[in-house]
Write a structure and sequence with these properties.
The structure is a single chain. The protein is an alpha+beta fold. The chain is 24% helix and 43% strand. The chain has four helices and nine strands; from the N terminus they run αααβββββββαββ. Strands 1, 2, 3, 4, 5, 6 and 7 form a seven-stranded antiparallel β-sheet that branches. Strands 8-9 form a two-stranded antiparallel ribbon. Helix 1 runs antiparallel to helix 2. The N and C termini lie far apart (47 Å). The relative contact order is 0.21.
């Protein structure tokens, strides 16, 4: 059994509704996955292919998904949330800067984001975002290989329920993207 198979088995064993314990257990399993030697075939292939996105595992019973992303230095993903879902990012190679934001509403009801902080997540580190957390990402040392563990299929969630919010910059402020 390789480390990816071990990861899947261990996450399935601890899976349950969102709780501090489930999140901590999943994060611990991602930490272990980050220690995988690059000689394991599945990880060696990820490094060779350097695909923008590669699905590593989708659980047929619990719906969690593990993706791998290769990002080039400078790639920026504007602020967004994950709707009702939670996600853990794990950096295997390179470094990703992640900034967090608070959603603020002015007296006229206009929504804009206020930046809270910024952290560089380096190889071997993880970062958790709970439902409603807003963040952006920028690859600051690439190419970066990161794993994105989501407790549900976020693309499906966005297509069907339209619950994910993306933000665009307007006149120096981040505001919710208009949806058609």
């Amino acid at each position: 059994m390789n480390t990816l198979e071990t990861f899947v088995g261990n996450v399935r064993a601890v899976w349950g509704p969102l709780s501090s314990q489930v999140v901590a257990d999943c994060q611990q399993q991602l930490d272990a996955l980050l220690d995988t030697p690059v000689s394991e075939p599945w990880l060696a292939t990820l490094h060779l292919e350097a695909a923008a996105q590669h699905e590593l595992y989708r659980d047929p019973e619990h719906d969690f998904v593990l993706l791998a992303h290769t990002e080039q230095q400078g790639l920026y993903r504007p602020p967004h949330d994950h709707g009702r879902g939670w996600v853990i990012y794990a950096v295997q190679q390179g470094a990703i800067e992640m900034s967090t934001y608070a959603r603020a509403e002015d007296k006229d009801g206009e929504v804009k984001l206020v930046k809270r902080d910024s952290t560089v997540i380096c190889a071997g580190q993880t970062r958790l975002y709970l439902p409603g957390d807003i963040h952006d990402t920028r690859c600051v040392a690439g190419p970066a290989l990161l794993f994105r563990f989501t407790e549900r299929d976020l693309k499906k969630e966005d297509r069907e329920a339209r619950r994910l919010t993306r933000y665009v910059e307007q006149a120096g402020n981040w505001v919710p993207e208009a949806r058609s």
